[in-house]
Amino acid sequence: MIFQKRGFKNQILVLIALLLVLPIVLAGYMLNVIHNTQLSMIESQKKKIAKAMELLDASLTASFDDLLTRANAAQAPRRDKVKLLNRQLKPLIVKIKENYPELELGFYSRDLDVILDGDENSYGENFSKRRKRAFDETISTSKPVVETLGLSEGGQLEMYRPLMRHGKVIGAVWATENLSALYRRVDRVQRDAYLVIAVGLLVGLGGTFALIRNLVAAVNQVKTGVQLLETDLTYVLPPATGELGEITEAINHLATKLVNVQNYNEIILASIDDGILAVDLRAVLIGVNAAAKRILGLPEDCLDKPLEETFPPDSPFYNYLTTALHEHRLVKDQEVLHPASEGKTLHLLISTNLMTNIRREIIGVVLTCRDITDRVHLEEQIRRQERLASLGKLVAGVAHEIRNPLTSISGYIQFWQKNPTPSPRSLSIIQREINRLNTIVDKLLHFARPAQAVFGIHDVNLLVNRVAQFFQDAHNSEVEIKRELTGDLPPAWMDPSQMEQVLYNVLYNAAQAMSGRGTIIVSTELEAEKNMVLVKVKDSGRGIPPEIMPHLFDPFFTTKPRGVGLGLAIAYEIIRAHGGEIELESQLGQGTTCKIYIPVAKEEG
């Protein structure tokens, strides 16, 4: 029970100690003991064999040739020499074996290439190629050679040392001992060690299985609880022990926070007037608020359904969502007309955006729609009132502008009624006033019914260069036009002739504001936020008083003695017909800047 109350971390650490550390330590200790024991036993045998070989070497006081010469067998056949030497060396070998009965030992003659072990029946065919290599190695290097053979090779320990007489190596002294008994003892020790290791592993495995069983049971309990939480965040995981208990508490706490956040989100989304829809990467609707259902007429069970089941393929909402999802092309405040119930048409502003997770990975798309129908109707009413007010100003301006020429013409006619002969000067004045009336009528007609625009894709920089050069040539004055044009501008969607008229009129007003001398700076750039090309005309004139700024685009409003007041009004109508914007910025004593925004041409296809 005390062990179970410990955390799983401690239980696993104890298990690792039992399963790995203890068996490894025991195995290492036992194998080290076995290895050291084997080494010490072999070293002990080596010392004993070396001592016996040393005694055998010392017991031979002459060389093999000396022994043969004494026996008058120097010229005898090899077989007789071997037999004679075995007979003479046998007492020496037997004497040494009395003290070392477990050893096999003897001599080796280099000249005769034979082992001399005291056996008179041996005639030279008495050793293997392995032993031949050992004899050759100890003779050639004049150093001892030791060979230890495993149990599979007979379990032999063999030693060879060079035999030197009269300053030269005449052969070797050899000795062997059978270590089979030693190897068998070592095997018994190894079996005992492996038994201890096996017992340790079994104990560790038993503890492992018990711990894994408890761990798996607890993990399955947590897994089942988490699966239930996927459908019911109010479910509470049962308590557990150790670290899993802390995990279940953390999961329960997290589920509670998720429930709270979900409630907050639902309250917030329900209180927002804008419609919000969210789709995942599979184009499945994963989120929609009440406003979106109401505005778009979606059914209550639209969640978790594919987009093609929620919107028809030709629906702009379907197109905007799929385009954002697959091509990552987004829209911002795109106005869409959406047919609603009872024959009404809603004006909606649509925006799309990508949803990303904490790792900046795209996980879906969100679409927001805002109902601006009431605002559009209100703006239409305001524009209608503004048009009526402008019409009143227009009528008053027309009456004022026409009254003056008519007054002059009427006066001269009355004068001619009394004096039927008109003077050339009076005829000239009447012709001038008639021309003035024609000019007013022409501009008024152009303002009321501007020429039909012929739109196309055109380069704004080329247009600016053309108008600036023409203006400079036409007005050979002290006005300098400086151009600051941005390269690589996208083409604009415009009628070049009408836009030339607008730019020429603005340049003419700028030149008049500087009294015919000074510098006008014309620049172009891309206004990315509005997706329009911006043309700026900045003069260094005296500026415009703030009180007259709101009236500059009104028809017949002018500050010039002989001006008609329709130039900027016509420019405003042309720019508005292009879907662009025109703005004026001015400060007294610092000049005026006119900003003309022209829409960028849409890509074909």
From TrEMBL:
Q: Where is the PAC domain?
A: 332-384
Q: Indicate the transmembrane segments per the record.
A: 12-31
Per its record, the protein catalyses: ATP + protein L-histidine = ADP + protein N-phospho-L-histidine
Cited InterPro entries? HATPase_C_sf (IPR036890), HATPase_dom (IPR003594), His_kinase_dom (IPR005467), HisK_dim/P_dom (IPR003661), HisK_dim/P_sf (IPR036097), PAS (IPR000014), PAS-assoc_C (IPR000700), PAS-like_dom_sf (IPR035965)
Gene3D superfamilies cross-referenced by the UniProt entry: 1.10.287.130, Histidine kinase-like ATPase, C-terminal domain, PAS domain
- Is Protein biosynthesis there in the keyword field? no
What EC number(s) does the entry state?
2.7.13.3
Query: What is the official name of this protein in its record?
Result: histidine kinase
